[in-house]
Each structure stands twice: as C-alpha cells, then as structure tokens.
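Morning. Coffee machine broken again, so started the prediction first thing and wrote up yesterday's gels while waiting. Chain of 449 residues, entered below exactly as on the submission form.
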Amino acid sequence: MEYSYEIMASKATKTERYTSQFEFIKGMKAFHEGKAKTISGIEMPDGESGRKMVLHYSELKPGMTNSGNGYFWEAAAPYHYLKDVPFSKLQSSDKIRKKPLYFGSYKLSKLVRGQSATWTPNKYYWRGKPKLDKIVCQVVSTKSATQAIKSHKFDVIDVINIYWKDIKNTKKVNFVAKIPLAYDYLGIKVGKWDAKTNKNVMNKNSKMANKSLRQAIGYAMNVKQVSKHYTNGLTFHVPTLIPAQFGDYYNKDIKGYNYDLKKASQILDKAGYKKKGKWRVQPNGKPLKINLLAKSRTPMDEPIVQNYIQQWHKIGLDVELVGNRMTEFNAFYDKVQHDAPEVDMFIAGWNLSSEPSPAALYDVGAPSNYSRFATPENTKLMNSLDSQKSFNHKYRVEQFHKWQQYMFDEAYVIPLSNSYEITSVNSALTGYSKRPSQSNSLWYQVGYA
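Came back before lunch.
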C-alpha cells in the first residue's frame, strides 16, 4: 500500500493521478518534490509486514467517507515484484506490460496487443477457483459488433446504442443495462498546465477567454435533438457537471445549455463579435477561427460532430476540426493533456467516482482540468466543498449548488450528455451483474447454468 502512494507521488512516473488533494497527507508534497525519500505521513504501527497502515493528515475532509474521494489511494501494488524497476521505467517495464501480477480471480495468460487477451484462473485467489476455465477478451470493430450479437459470437459484448433497434429482439441473450456515473462534455481551452508549480495557469488573453463566446457556443449545440436522432433515445442531455445520481448535490434548477440559436447570436452581438462577411471577428477586429478536437469511437461520432459544427456556422463562428478530421483516441489525449496550441475546444468525457466532489477534475492543482481554467472564485468554491464547514451536509449541498451555477455561467466546461450502458449477455450465463457493489468480484461469480 505504501509503495502505491510512492508510485503515484513520484514525478518520474509522470502519472496524472497525483493531485493537490493528496498533499493533505503529511510529507506527501516533500516526497513529490524530491525533498524526502519516504512519505512521513504513512505509518505502519505493526511493521512493514503488518496489516495496518495509518495515514496522517493535516486536515480531515467530508468527502473522505466516500470511495474515490481523491484524498487517499485505494489500490495496492506488488512492491516485492516491482521494487527493482526505477520509477522512470515503470510504465514501459515488461513487469507491467507483459508479465503483470494480479490478485483477482483471473490472471492474464496471453496477450496479442491490439487484438485479444486470454485470462485463466488465478490459483492464489483468496476465494478459491472461479467457475470458468478461461475468459478470452477480443477487440472488435463497432461495425461488426451488431452482427456479432446476432450470431452469438461472444457470451458478453457491449451494445453500440445507435444499433439498438437492430439487435433488441435477439433470442437467447439477456440485455443488462445501467446509467453510468459519467458524462461527455465540451472543454474550452483557456490556459496551460505548469509542470513546475503543478498548477493550471490561465491566459487572460486566450482566444477563448471571453465568457460570452463560450456561452454562445453552448447555446448553439442541439444536444437533445442529436441524441434523439442518432442514438435511439439511449443518450440524453446532461445539464450540469454534477449528475442527477448524486441526489441532493445535483442542482435541478440548472437547465443547461439548451439549443437556442437566436440567444447565441444575441450574446455574440452584445459582446462585440461582429460579422465581417460570412464569419464573426473578435471584438478587437481580428479574425476568429476556432479549432475543435474530437475523437472517433462509433460511426455516428463524426456526423454528430459535423452537426455541431454546422450549428456554430449558423451563428457565424468559423469552427473547424483540427486537421480537418476526427482524431485517433491516443493522439487525441496526447494533444489535450499536453495543451497542443492548435486546440481551442475538445469533446471528451469522464467516468466519475462515488464521491461527488469534482476537485480531482477541475481544481487549480488537477492535471485532469484540461480546460486549464483556474479562477480565484473556482478555487474558493472548490475549497468550500470539502471545508470543515461542509461536514454540515446542508452547507455542503448549498456549496455544490453554487459551484454548478458558477460553472454554468462561466462555461469553461459545458456538459453534453450521458448514455445508457447496455451489455448483451448469453442467457446461459449466470452471475453477471452491472451492480456497482459486485464490480470487484464480478468474474468470480460468472458461470454457465
């Protein structure tokens, strides 16, 4: 457990998991900056081979009661196996890439990169032997996924929502679904990540720094109409950055950026974005060209993105895809994470933890804050969400509502949609579930009837 904190905190591993939230652990910042060889706030009262670890914090936080809160790490790492690998070479090491260790019910026995992975029972698993002799995971194209469901090629396969009507009546399968804790969003770049200070730094002269421009971009997106047309209604508009699954933390009074071209145009007019020929120019009279980065996952991604671009064109905004095409997944995140200068906006998504605080995604010290906004007001609100006052639930809810309203007004990140997550499962299989409580032990329970 201690080693997993050291992996995350070392600058040499170049992980994005380290955020300023972890610096509430005593000695964490000193270790991260290379000023200490160990993390002083990690104590093992029964020794390194004991079963107890105590974390010493400078301050306790309300969010610590939920999993995925960002203040403590929840995964172990095999120190005895990896200790001889320098942190700088850990990511590319064969011990990680080719021969990793597992403590789950199955272990990796064969890997064909980019094609398939074969898993066999882990004889050391604490519960005993699982029910299947092996599990073969195979990569298939989205185009062939529908036919694979119809022909029963796989026992378990994710449904591509745009093809739901084509497969929903398939015999001898059960469709298992859930609404995930997730959302897609439009991120608007207004700064850069500073590796020296480990902070997001805004550029007040950024092309996208004008709030009115960002708001108009949001109002010109016909998210509800697109979801209905392209995804059989299995994708739906998300109005705010705290999803409804979080109960009273969700601000139901925020209706989001609903499609309104007239309003979008009025906002631009009022802000001085005047038309010069076909396109609008900046208030200072300079040309305005906006570059959008978007990745392709399903056949419908490109027509959806091209639709948004058409809407922006209707209000006089010259928006184009970076490189005039959709971007491959790995290249997409390389550009987003490293603040490629040609990117003004990007469409990405989050899977969330069960702790509602968004600090790990949008704080000034969060590498994952890819829009790079870092206003004093956002920092103030972020701090309030996990302040000592927020041990009072009513106060914490109020602060969450304020933050959502602030983010809606500022439009640095515009929430777009979430989608039903549907899986086709062979009806002869038992024990398969989408329940969060069973996710960690899922495959141990799966077998044939």
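The first strand starts at residue 42 and ends at 43. Going to sketch it on the whiteboard this afternoon.
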